[in-house]
Write a structure and sequence with these properties.
This protein has 485 residues and is α/β, with parallel strands linked by helices. The chain has 17 helices and 19 strands. The protein binds 3-isopropylmalic acid and iron/sulfur cluster.
Length: 485
């Protein structure tokens, strides 16, 4: 009896699993000790840039998409965002390569029987916005896309990560993928975020702490009071940038907010299936006492609004801080990197962040283009005007449905009245792949997730910030402490 009880206890203790362990185990087809394991992939998202190669590969080997109903495609990276250019669909794209990629996506989806939200479809938008919006991304599923920011979908406790074009091809053909097991890391954020700070400030803080390689080889689970307090939009912002800390996977456990967000979405289960699904989804949290390979604790209450000053997301400081001085950096490699970054950014060490004058503002991208982001930005902008030195302030909703919702709430009018531009959905100025770009030397406050050299256009200078900060910077013409603005 005693022995049995001990065995039970030991069994229970051994069974405490992290959320990542649960998702991993559920999708495991074949485990190879030491080597990569074979995982079952439930869903795949496809966009215009990385998919041509995958489809071409299928054609060359004479293979079909095995379960085309598990794939959803949209055009986002190459699409223009002005109404005028959008009127004529892909024909309105002046750049020939962009036009070919958008056209090709439609042709490939037709040939392989895959659903596509193309130009002219109100459901079109950034791949990481439309997946959750449609209920295509569901808790407990495994989701891949030929796009590194697929980590976004982990906000729903989905095992979601970016893959290369040949891996995406393999998933299309077999629904399986070989992957080396990731190590679970816990980032526990206790306390509450101060007023006017958002998920973007939090994740920039975390990346500043971990560094851009700190998450390499890990799946990061975000937990704690500050995470529970975040909306699903905020959790998506957080997981979106897990990859910027090097982690292919970001995760948040299922709670009431997850369930409420998914319920009633077009592709979410209904009726009896919903009940069964919800019961399973509610198990998707790390067990008490589950072992993580690394645990990082952060206190949200002491955080400040963040602004990047350099050319990686870890080069970040609070808005009331200064651009760091490389002369104070003891490590020669770090010092060299700082100097190179400052030169590119046209900044001097010691400059107060609030004195940095801007040329452009971009509110959009899969990090911050959801309805909540637009609400936050509009609340800052309301009744104010764009500063004269801001040549352009773009607001680009993440999908046609976000756009419609924002218009129903009158947010577009708030932006237009303040001298901002209200655009059609797409990746837009997040990356220099469509007509929305920075010119050489132009400085931008951007709500996107990457700031490397030339990211928003050759010679362009990117500062990553929250939507509230971007909006305030457009009004003031420079960075401001949004907790006082
Ligand atoms: C084009 C695509 C491969 C790329 C990515 O994987 O992330 C893009 O979305 C990005 O943000 O740089
Ligand atoms: S919005 Fe930016 S980060 Fe997101 S998928 Fe598009 S290019 Fe990549």
């Amino acid at each position: 009896m005693t022995t049995a009880t001990q065995a039970d206890t030991a069994g229970k203790a051994a069974k405490a699993q992290t959320l990542f362990d649960k998702l991993w185990q559920r999708h495991l087809v074949k485990e190879e000790p030491g080597g990569p394991s074979l995982l079952y992939i439930d869903r795949q998202l496809v966009h215009d840039v990385t998919s041509p190669q995958s489809f071409e590969g299928l054609r060359l080997s004479g293979r079909k998409a095995w379960r085309p109903e598990t794939v959803l495609a949209t055009a986002d990276h190459n699409v223009p965002t002005t109404q005028l250019e959008r009127r004529s669909g892909a024909d309105g794209i002046s750049d020939p390569l962009s036009r070919i990629q958008v056209d090709q996506l439609t042709r490939n989806c037709g040939d392989f029987g895959i659903a596509e939200f193309g130009l002219g479809d109100e459901r079109q938008g950034i791949v990481h916005v439309i997946g959750p919006e449609q209920g295509f991304t569901l808790p407990g599923t495994s989701v891949v896309a030929g796009d590194s920011h697929t980590s976004t979908h982990g906000a729903f406790a989905a095992l979601a990560f970016g893959v290369g074009a040949s891996e995406a091809e393999h998933v299309l053909a077999t629904q399986c993928l070989a992957l080396k097991r990731l190590k679970p890391m816990l980032v526990r954020v206790c306390g509450r975020l101060p007023e006017r700070l958002g998920a973007k400030d939090l994740i920039l803080n975390i990346i500043g702490h971990l560094g851009t390689a700190g998450g390499t080889g890990y799946a990061i689970e975000f937990a704690g009071e500050a995470i529970s307090e975040l909306s699903m939009e905020g959790r998506m912002t957080l997981c979106n940038m897990a990859i910027e800390a090097g982690a292919r996977v970001g995760l948040v456990a299922v709670d009431d907010k997850t369930i409420a967000y998914v319920k009633g979405r077009p592709l979410a289960p209904k009726g009896e299936q919903w009940k069964a699904a919800e019961a399973y989804w509610r198990t998707l949290a790390s067990d008490e006492g589950a072992a993580f390979d690394r645990v990082v604790e952060i206190d949200a209450a002491g955080l400040r609004p963040m602004v990047t000053w350099g050319t990686t997301p870890e080069m970040v400081v609070p808005v009331d801080g200064r651009v760091p001085d490389p002369m104070h950096e003891a490590d020669p490699v770090r010092r060299g990197n700082m100097q190179t970054a400052l030169e590119y950014m046209g900044l001097k060490g010691g400059t107060p962040i609030e004195q940095i004058q801007l040329d452009k503002v971009f509110i959009g991208s899969c990090t911050n283009s959801r309805i909540e982001d637009l609400r936050v930005a509009a609340a800052v902008v309301k009744g104010r005007r764009r500063a004269p030195n801001i040549r352009q302030a773009l607001v680009v909703p993440g999908s046609g449905l976000v756009k419609r919702q924002a218009e129903a709430e009158g947010l577009h009018q708030v932006f237009l009245d303040a001298g901002f531009e209200w655009r059609e959905p797409g990746c837009s100025m997040c990356l220099g792949m469509n007509a929305d770009r920075l010119g050489k030397g132009e400085r931008c406050a951007s709500t996107s997730n990457r700031n490397f050299e030339g990211r928003q256009g050759a010679g362009g200078r990117t500062h990553l910030v929250s939507p509230a900060m971007a909006a305030a910077a457009a009004i003031a013409g420079h960075f401001v402490d949004i907790t006082q603005f």
